Amino acid sequence: MTADTGSGAGASSDAGAGSAAGSGSVARKPSTGGRIKAFTILAVLVLSGLTFLAWSQSWGSLLIAGGTTTEASLDVPGSAAAPALSALGLAGIALAGALAIAGPIIRIVLGALEVLLGASVLWSALGALGDPVAAGASVVTTSTGVAGLGSIRELVTAGPASPWPAVTVVLGIAMMIAGIAVVATVRRWPAASRKYQAVTFEGAGGRQSGDPADFFDDEPDDERDEADERDRSYDATATRTATAGNAETRDASAAKPPAGEAPETDEPLRRARDAAVDDWDSLSRGTDPTR
C-alpha cells in the first residue's frame, strides 16, 4: 500500500510538472497576429531587397548590326534598363522598418504605399521586357555616340535576354500582394511596443502627466488655495500701506518751508523783519529812513 501510494504521488507530481511545462510552452508560443505581422514584414523586406538586387544585375544584351565599332554586343544592366528600381527597393526596405513600429492607421497607409511600390516595380520591368532596345538606348549612346531612338533601332537588335526582367515582374506582383495583405490583416496585428510611444506617468490616484515633477507636490489643493489667498491678502495690505506712506510724505513735504527760511510762528517777529527790509530798501535808494 505504501509503495502504491508513493508511486501514485510520483506519477501525479510528474503529471503536474508536465502540465506546467506544457502551459509554459503554450504561454511562450507567439500569437497568430504576431506571426502574421512578422511574416508580412519579412516578406516586404525580402521582396524589397530582391528588387534592389535585380537593379544591379544584367538584364540582357544588344547586338550591333553595323558601324565602325569592334564590339559585337552591348550588355544592358538593370540600372540602365530600369533605373527607378534602386529607389523603389530602398523605399520598400524603409517601409518594412516603419511597419514594425507604426500604429494601426499608419499601417494601413503604409500597406497602400507598398501596393504603389509594387505597381511601379511591375511597370518598370514590363517596359524593359516589351522594348529591350529602348531600355538599353542609354548604353548604346554611351558606347557608340549614336543618339535618337530611331537611329539606335537601325544600329542594334535585341540579343539574348536575361531572366531578371521576368523575375522583377514577379517581384512587383508579390509586393502588391504583400501590401494588400498588410491592409487586410492589420487589425489582427498586436499593438506596437510602448518603447516608441510618448512616456506618460500615472500617480496613485490615477492622475496622468508627462512631467514627473507634477507628482512631487504632495500639498492638497485646499491648502494650496488657502496659501495663495494669504499671499494675495498680504500683497494687498502691503500695497495700501506703501500708498498711505507716500501720501503722508508728500503732505509733509508740502508743509515744510523753503530752504533758508524760518517757520513763521510769531507775528511781531514777522513785522520787525518786514520793517528792517523796508529800511534797507530806503537806504539803498539814498533816503534817510529816520525822517
Summarize the structure.
The chain has 291 residues and is mainly alpha-helical. Helix content is 66%, strand content 8%. The protein has a domain at 29-193: Butyryl-CoA Dehydrogenase, subunit A, domain 3 (Up-down Bundle).
Give the N-to-C terminal Cα separation: 162 Å
In round numbers, the mean pLDDT is: 75
Question: What is the structural class?
Answer: mainly alpha
Low-confidence stretches: 1-28
Quickly count the helices.
11
Give the overall shape, derived from the CA principal axes: elongated
CATH class of the domain at 29-193: Mainly Alpha
The sequence of SSEs as H and E is: HHEEHHHHHHEHEEHH
Task: Examine the coordinates and then state which fold CATH places here, giving the name of the CATH topology of the domain at 29-193.
Answer: Butyryl-CoA Dehydrogenase, subunit A, domain 3
CATH architecture of the domain at 29-193: Up-down Bundle
Radius of gyration: 49 Å
Beta-strand percentage?
A: 5-15%
Q: Largest sheet, described in full?
A: 3 strands, antiparallel
Strand order of the largest sheet: 2-1-3
- Percent in helix: 55-70%
The total strand number stands at 5
